[in-house]
Every structure is written in structure tokens, then in C-alpha cells.
Amino acid sequence: MLEAIGLDDEHTSVYRLILQRPSASLDELAAAAGATSGRMRRILAELERLGLLARQASAPDRVVASPPSIALRPMLLERERGLAQAHETLLQLSEVYREGAAQRVAPDVVDVIVGADAVRQRFAQLQASATEQVSVFVLNEIAFLDADENEEEDRALARGVRYRVIVEKAVLERPGFIDSAREAAAYGEEVRVLPTLPTRLVIADDQMALLPMRSHGEARAAGALLVHPSGLLDLVLAIFEEFWASSTEFLTTGEMPGTHDAIDRDLLKLLLLGLTDAAAAAQLGISVRTVQRRIAELMDTAKVSTRIQLGAEAVRRSWV
pLDDT for 68-83, tens place per residue? Predict the structure, then answer.
């Protein structure tokens, strides 16, 4: 697609239609694109303004496509020049920033971000700037913003950024969490679990950390601390690594025996993490009765008589 040079999908599709024809009229193109005549007239006017089409000399009511190598190349080159200049400016500004950072005194290693909107903006910026890894603490309380609002996470995962996420056990009771975790795992997000966490936290590329000024009691973060490279950041990184090492992997891929399926594996994992039958049933979209039946069948397969024994056998046999 050609969004990078200012053409949306609709304009690109019409240009493609014109390229496929020796010439075309407005009505022909409107019919082929499923658009109204008025809408097609505006699209053609924009394409003509950009030099992507011209009027046929022998029939001015028909248009012909300009060759892409002639019409698009100048636009691409201009965009490349603009990106090169922007990149050069970025390098210059980064150098200025590094020089300033080297002169920071102790209070300057932390920026205070005030206001929920500003906090959400920094949260998005950290993820957008990450190139290798984002590390996150997720409390049961809403973090810096709702998961469905966090579009930067999807973009970061799509470009290959690894996410390491530690969640509180209570987060597992959110509807659809297990499905979301499995979907994100396919793009490189690893989720682990601890009973509780001390604060919300996001770290980008081990170069910057964002945490709220208050850990608990607020629906959203109204203020946050942005920690720059320093001994304090080193401490934050070390704390995350300690928590990561002691946390429990959430999604596992152990093979289940006989007729048991992936739901049984997920059920075992949820129960081992301390969820009740009701909470596990809600997460898996099954009834409590079904949970209890499946547990009884798993106990028969493992040849044990208690749930504690079942948990031990599930771990020993690598079911979870």
C-alpha cells in the first residue's frame, strides 16, 4: 500500500483499476469500485492533482494512468529525503540529550509526569520507541491504560519486540485473559504469574522505566515517575529480574495423555496458580460442574486421590 506517500487504500485501489485499463471513464470506474459518481469524481481529481493520471487526448472524459515509475518515483524520493533529514535531526537531538544526561544531578534522573493523559502518552511512547524488549508488571487494578486501548503493544509485537509480562494472580480471572495471552504469545509475549506485585511498571529496552507515584488505590495513574539511566534504574531492572526468576510460567505446551485436551492443560495450570473452580470455569468458558468432572477424570488418569497429588503428578509428567 502507498500510505507512506499519502495515498489511502481507496485511492490506491482506484489507481490500480486505471492501470489495468487502456483508459476509463468516471462511470466505468465508479461501477468497478462500487463507489458513487460524486465520490469517484473527487478521487480522480486528487489522483490527477498528484500526477497519477491524465485526461485522454482524444476523449477528455476518459482518464489514463501515468506510469508508476514516473509518477510515484519523485514522491518516494521526496519522502526518502524527508526521512533522511528527520533521521539526521534525530541523531543530532539524541547527542544533545546524551550531553545533557551526562550532566544530570541526582534529582534529574527521575522525571515527574503529572496527569493521566500525560502518563498514558509516556506509556505509549516507551513502547513505540522500544526496539528489543519491553518488561511489564501488571496489577489487578487497571494499569496505565486498558489492554484494548494499548495499540502500541500490538505494533511493537508486530515489529518483533519481545514482551515479558508478570501479572498478579487476580488478573487471571479477567474474562478472556487466557485467550489474549495465547494470541500474544504467538508474537513473542511471555506471561508469568505471581500472587501479588508491589507496583505497576514498564521498562523499555532496559533504558527507561515508568512507574506510578502511587502503587495502589487509583483506578488510573494520575502521576508517574520516568526513570532515566542511573543507579536507580539499575535497581529497578534488578528487581524486575528477581521477580521474573521467581514467577510461574503461565502458558505451557506439555502434551496431555489419552483423550485429554488443551482445556485440561489450561485447567491444571489455573488450579495450580490458585484459582477457584468457579474462577477457572469462567476463564475457560465452561461450567463449574464440567471443571469438577474434568478434574476427576485427570485424577483417574494420574491414579491419584487428591488434588494436591494431581498437581504434583501434572508437574512430574510435564502436563503443565
Answer: 766 666 666 667 776 7
pLDDT digits (tens, 9 = 90+) for 295-318: 888 788 778 777 877 777 777 766
The answer to whether 242 touches 198, Cβ cutoff 8 Å, is: no
Q: What is the pTM of this model?
A: 0.58
Q: What is the pLDDT of residues 24-72, one digit of tens each?
A: 888 888 898 888 988 888 888 888 887 777 777 677 788 887 777 666 6
d(CA 193, CA 191): 7
